[in-house]
Amino acid sequence: MAVITQLLLFALLPVVATAAQNNPTTQGVKWLEKGRSVLVRVSTPDLPLWNKEEQIGEDIPSALILNFTVSADNKTLLLQDQPFMPLLLPHTPPRLSAPQTSQSLSEFEHGAPKLEDLPVFDLDYDRIAHPRDDPSIHYYNYYPKLTINLLGAGIAGHNALLKDMEQKVVKITLRDWNTVSRASTDPPNHSFEITEVRLWERRAGDSVNPDDLKACTLKSWRCSDFGDHPWYRYIFRQNFDEYGKIGSFRHMLLQRWGTLYARLGFFRITLLILVVASMVLSPIPYALYKGGKWIKAQHRARAEAVAAVWKDDDEDVEGLLFADESLENVYGYEETECQEVFSEKQVGGNAEGSVEKPLPPVPAQTADALEASEKV
Ligand SMILES: *[C@@H]1O[C@H](CO)[C@@H](O)[C@H](O)[C@H]1NC(C)=O
Ligand SMILES: *[C@@H]1O[C@H](CO)[C@@H](O)[C@H](O)[C@H]1NC(C)=O
Ligand SMILES: *[C@@H]1O[C@H](CO)[C@@H](O)[C@H](O)[C@H]1NC(C)=O
């Protein structure tokens, strides 16, 4: 019965999976240049339309516009003019901002994009690359898929989480023409083309609250989301600054160093390093000398103590003797075993190697062994 249920589950799984991720759409995808540059309109039901003149949000449907463009040398995918694949500095993920439009879907798709004079929102986002975009991994036929899910947006000090399940997730597929039936190089020399852009339904877990993320403390070096490069997927503006993930040990060190550097400048920092280094290094030879003397003294003291034990403490000496006796017993048993083997070999006429075996203590047997070796 359990087996049947399992089989049913396996049979249903693909169906359930496709149902949860149904109908990717290309509505809202507007190519500026096929394979190289594309605008994506992401409807944001949580975001009011920002009125720049009055500095208020109006209850009018709006959308954010993302611009994915391959750089002129084809090596990098830019998002809003920033390197997004590969990342320039994975420890300080790019800060993105996007213009907000009140254009409807059909206006956007059929009209010319007018992006000037629009209010611009700063973004929080979830970025996942599949396979992982670690430059030290070499891929054959590299078709990376990027998933970008907008998690929050802010303007003029107002912030909103984008949690509405109607909001779509952008998936963009690239092709690296420099890896066609060969592996990527180190450092990678990509030649990207954008092959596919689609908007997918959100799934449970795609709307993320920054408070639900694991707290970042000094116990962690970088408070990463992954164990490996590129380390982070949830990029909330409040969690990152120019030194990396706020709260991590790495961030603390870099920030301390940064403020020190800013305060002292290059010359005095160099001087400080020299002074500290000489302070740290100069005691080492002295410490080695002192340490050597100490070890010698310890050694001598122990030798003297052992001598004292042998002289004074009869009980301990007796104990040692007993221990030796019990060892002798053990070896004694082994010797008898050896004897038996020895005599068997003798019968076989094979005395070779028997010379190496410990000779039995009984004089008569020793004579036998000598005889045997004389025979050979
Ligand atoms: C970039 O790719 C386009 C095709 O997508 C190609 O025409 C162009 O020559 C490439 N440029 C470089 C520098 O490789
Ligand atoms: C899209 O971005 C590219 C570079 O990142 C830029 O050259 C282009 O003008 C942008 N297009 C629009 C319509 O904003
Ligand atoms: C990188 O790839 C381009 C073609 O896309 C090629 O012209 C160039 O020589 C390559 N550079 C290196 C360092 O391999």
UniProtKB/TrEMBL annotation:
Q: Where is the signal peptide?
A: 1-19
Note down the stretches annotated as region Disordered. Answer: 346-376
Query: Transmembrane region positions?
Result: 265-289
Keywords assigned: Membrane, Signal, Transmembrane, Transmembrane helix
Tell me the protein's name: Uncharacterized protein
